[in-house]
Amino acid sequence: MHLRIVVLITAAILLLLGGAARAEDRWRIDFENGAAISGYNNLRIPGDSGTTFSLTDDLSSDTTYYWRLRADFRVAPKHVLSALVAPLEIHASGTFDEPVSFVGATFAPGVPTTGLYVFNSYRVTYRYEPIRRDSWMFGVGVTAKVRDAITRLEANGTRAEKTNVGAVPLVNFKFERRLGPRARFLLEGDALAAPQGRAEDVFAGVVVDTGKWWSIKAGYRFLEGGADNDEVYTFAMVHYVAAGAAFRF
């Protein structure tokens, strides 16, 4: 009963706040896709006893298609809630020059080996936008991120993988500068660094309004970060050639 009351009160507050936002600007659905290119991808698992290797230098990582989907809800003129789904899967192949110990298995040199790097990200963000002017805007907030990661090696019947599911907090930011009647520069992302590791996911590009409800965008995104502890050593950089479209209502 108490839980139902809390849910009802929360819903009522959101509806009241939502009424303060312009109806045509309340929801925004953003679809982004393009090419994901590995910059580096260095691993050692376990972190205190495995062999350090690279999915980009020792093996060769494929350029892959990616997509991500974000939904924004403006609960008030300066307050935004959003949810993001951002899957990522990169395949690698090649041969090692020396034996590699990975998750308790040993992969011999000169044997054709395949690798898999999965880093799916699910995020919920609250952002406060104190500056919203005709020519530019700025907002900052907090993101709760859940990562669903898999790293796998397979060769000649030997297969080993490490999975990891965990939650981390990130700082969210967004900056827009108008370039003309319909175009604007956009810089946005989530990032945070700590002794346990770091994570950055940043987009920079141009957004063009193509109508009352629609806009398109193109630009560059990078995803970087990792962790260094007894369980894992893993740091990766992924470059994105990004394009997408957004629908506002």
What does this structure look like?
With 249 residues, the chain is mainly β. It has a single domain, classed as Lipocalin (Beta Barrel). The protein has one helix at residues 2-18; strands spanning 27-44, 53-54, 60-61, 64-76, 79-86, 89-94, 100-102, 105-107, 113-132, 136-155, 158-178, 183-194, 197-209, 214-228, 233-248. Strands 1-4-5-9-10-11-12-13-14-15 form a ten-stranded antiparallel beta barrel. It has a two-stranded antiparallel sheet with strand order 7-8. It is elongated.
| Beta-strand percentage range | over 45%
Identify the quaternary structure here: single chain
CATH superfamily heading: OMPT-like
The total number of structural domains is 1
Tell me the Rg in angstroms.
21 Å
Secondary-structure content class? mainly beta
Assign the CATH architecture.
Beta Barrel
Mean pLDDT rating: 92
Low-confidence stretches: 9-14, 16-21
Strand order of the largest sheet: 1-4-5-9-10-11-12-13-14-15
- Which word captures the global form? elongated
List the keywords:
single chain; 15 strands; 249 residues; mainly beta; Lipocalin; two-stranded antiparallel sheet; ten-stranded antiparallel β-barrel
Secondary structure layout plus pairing:
Layout: H1 2-18, E1 27-44, E2 53-54, E3 60-61, E4 64-76, E5 79-86, E6 89-94, E7 100-102, E8 105-107, E9 113-132, E10 136-155, E11 158-178, E12 183-194, E13 197-209, E14 214-228, E15 233-248
Antiparallel strand pairs: 1-2, 1-4, 1-15, 3-6, 4-5, 5-9, 6-9, 7-8, 9-10, 10-11, 11-12, 12-13, 13-14, 14-15
